[in-house]
Amino acid sequence: MSGALSGPEIERLIQLLAKLPGLGPRSARRAVLHLVKKKQTLLQPLAVAMADAAEKAVICSTCGNVDTQDPCAICRDPRREPTGLCVVEDVGDLWALERAGAHKGRYHVLGGTLSALDGIGPEDLTIGSLIERASNEEIKEIILATNATVDGQTTAHYITDRLANADVVVTRLAHGVPVGGELDYLDDGTLAAAMKSRRPV
Questions:
Q1: Which residues pair with 141 in a beta bridge?
Q2: Domains of the chain
Q3: Considering only Cβ atoms within 10 Å of each terminal Cβ, which end of the chain, N or C, has fewer?
Q4: In terms of Cα–Cα distance, which of 178, 201, 199 is closest to 191?
Q5: Are 197 and 174 in contact (CB under 8 A)?
Q6: Predicted model pTM
Q7: How many C-beta neighbours within 10 Å does residue 94 have?
């Protein structure tokens, strides 16, 4: 006989956690069990932190990063190198590059990649606003840091074509990023080396 092993509130928490990347039903059940056992020191503070994040998290209208202010802390930081704009697929990639300390300039989050199979075209991404940002006289280099997947490569080629008449140098991450690899899963050293070894497109 199968069915719920605990009350509906706990089952709902398990079902929600199971939707997170990298967590299936079993991992979610283990995580919830751990949270419930540590109710005072972990579950309740987590609930408060999640409520705060749900209330205050916003998408940066300039670059697409997730923060609690708009523009985000990176876009507002005057110490950032203004001439280099690093283009990434999603916020996880931006955070990976920041974690590695690989880029000192600003970013542009595309919100995904071009994919004919999934019906994702240029109008579904932030490519239009990227082209606008590239016309800013301060920006001298566009660094394409899309993932080394077929869709990532296709997106990089499309952006390169769109920037053909812009007065910027377009570079791509070096092949230290393995084909089929995703930035968020790479170690910091590989990311930093790939950024330093970037080349013109």
A1: 84, 169
A2: 8-56 (1.10.8.420), 66-200 (3.40.1360.10)
A3: N
A4: 178
A5: yes
A6: 0.78
A7: 26
